[in-house]
Every structure is written in C-alpha cells, then in structure tokens.
Amino acid sequence: MKTYLSFLLLLVFPFTIYSQETLSADELFLKARTAAFDQKDYATSISLAKQALEKAPNYTDISIFLGRVYTWNNDVASARTLFEELGKKEVQNEDYFLAYASLEYWNDQNTKAIEILDKGLGYHPQSESLLLLKAKVYYGSENYKEAESTINSLLAINPKNTEARALAARINDLTSKNAINIVYNYTHFDKQFDNDWHIVSLSYKRITPIGSIILRGNYANKFAENGTQIELEAYPKISKMFYLYVGGGYSNDVGIFPKYRTGVSLNANLPHSFEAELGYRQLYFSNNIWMYTASVGKYYKNFWFNLRTYITPDSKNISHSYTGTVRYYTKSAQDYFAFQIGTGISPEEYRNNLLENETYKLKTFKVGGEYNFSIKKTNLFSLSAMYFNQEFRPHERGNQFDITIGYTKKF
Q: Could you report the per-residue pLDDT of 247-266, keeping only the tens digit for each?
C-alpha cells in the first residue's frame, strides 16, 4: 500500500510543480492575496509572492504586498529590508509609503514613520490614507497639536471621512494644556414650580500625562434659595483603547444639590469608529440613589450618533431613562449642530435634584438642540435649548424650558 501511494505522489508532484511554473505573475499574485486575506496563511502567501516576483522582478505592487505580509507575519527585518530596497528605486507608489510607514508605526518608530509619510505626501498631498496615518502617529506619540493640524487638513479635503472625524473628536480635548469654562443655565416651569432656576458653573481643566482633570464650582438659585457645589472629575488613560471617567462632588446645600455624588465609567474607543461606555452614578440626598449607565456611539461621515440609558433599580421597580443624540459636524470637532430626544431624567442634568423626590418614576419627554462653534480654535461657544414635558404628579403634566449658554477659553 505504501509503495502504491509513493508511486501516485511521484506521478502527481511533477504536475503540481509544472502547474505552478505555468502560472503568470498576476495569477500567482492573486493566489498569494487569497492565501493572505482569506486563509491567513502568510507562509504560503509569501512563497507565492516570491514566485511571482521571480517572473516579474519589477512588479512593484507585488513587492509592496510582500512587505505587508512580512509585517503581518512579524518578520520586521525582512519587511524593512524590502521597503528600503524599494526606496532606493525611488518608488512613488502611494501604497508603498502607507505600507512602509505602517510597519514603522506599529513598531513604535514614530519619527521614521513621519519621515516616510512626509515623503509620500510630497508626491500625494491629497492622500487621505497618508494624512490619516500621519495624524495617528502624532496622536500615538502625544504630539496633539500636530495631530490636530494633520487631521484638520484631511477633513478640509474630505469632511465626510468617518475615521478622521472620530480621531478628531479624541484629539480635540488634548490640544491645549489648560481650559477655563463658564456655563449659565436658565430654567422656566409653567406649572411645577413658581420660581425660575438659575445655575452658573465655572470650571478649570488641566491636561496631564495620565489624562485630563477638571475642577468645577457650581452656584444655583432653585426654589428661590441659593446653593453651591464643588466637583472634581478625571479621565485617566488606561490604554490606546480604554480610559476611565472618575467623578465626585460635595454640597452643603442639600436639596439644591445632592450632598454627595460619585461616578465611575469605563470608556472604549472601538474599531470601525464606534465607542462605548459602561458605569455607575450615585447621588446622596437623605438616601443613596444608584444609577447604572451604558452608552454606545458611532461616527459616520459628518455625523455622530449616540444612545445612552440610565437604569435605576429600587425595591419596587426599575426606572429607565433613554436619550438619543445626533451631531452634525460642520468643520472641526468643536463645530457642530446637535439634536437630542429622550425620556426620563439623567443625573448629569441640572435637574438632578428632582431625583430625590422620585419623580424620575413618572413620565418625562424631552427634546432639544445645541450649536457649538469656535473662533480661532481657542475660543469655544455653545448655545442649547431643551423642552421637557414632565408628569410631576400622577396624571398631571407641566412644561419646562431650558436655555444654556457656555464659553470655553483654551490656552
């Protein structure tokens, strides 16, 4: 039986070799791509690509592809040698610069990656792929100003580049070491309360090597009474994908504000321009109120879509709050229109002291819009308006109107 099998292999093997030898460079290239992309068989793909280059040594696309497969196969030395040889030939192919710079970026050689990208952009100044990678390299090396400049150049070419829009949003809060923000909120009730509410917030934000830190003071006039609150928030980085939100607040004017508030969330910048958050918020008036929050967001061209929920369990039932938000970016990450619609009260709203009276179990509908714009990049303005229809007592509804204006100075 073994002799018979050996005889068959001797008959078949020469034909297999002959069939490979008769394939054209293009046919071998196609088989190499299939092995790499569909089967993740990099060893076979490399072998086929080398055979194709033996037939067509000056076939640049195959050489670039081979360099990419070497990179995916963690053979950095072979990939770098091949790309350097192509560089000596003064190759001007856009994909060459993208593949070579990606190799260096993925191996933390950011300076070399920028050098390669700048050379490629000299030949292809409108290349979205090269500009996006350059912004990523600067972002990864924490050179946020250059990252912002590069991503804005890309968005000027194509404002609907989804991945660029998502990266611009992440860069936005990191371009200035400091920021001072002042916000004024005015609230009018037609039935629920006799007096309008006024809230003023002043905050200072500092970017540190571990993430941003915000110190905020709030003054409010609610129910014709005054109150103050102090808050501290931080956004420590865990990795390129994950970061935390950690916040806390204290007020001695219980009822105007909660006496204590805390919150922690895990945030993720996910592939395909998605983002997500999972965490909790806690408010203490005379008793603790615990809320659990989750959200998912998605960038698509000029748009950002987000859906957030707050779930509040207690001994009798589980209360829900849902808010959907859509943003349309006009220029940078600081310039956009937003539309919001939802139900329930969230602990992030200025109305959070209403949670103490458990009105969050009653039906609430809200809808509103927001406009944010910047002047000279460091002056940021915001204007928003919200309408609430609140069931403040069983089967009795009232209307509420909120107007908020804000200004931020970056420096």
A: 999 999 998 999 999 999 99
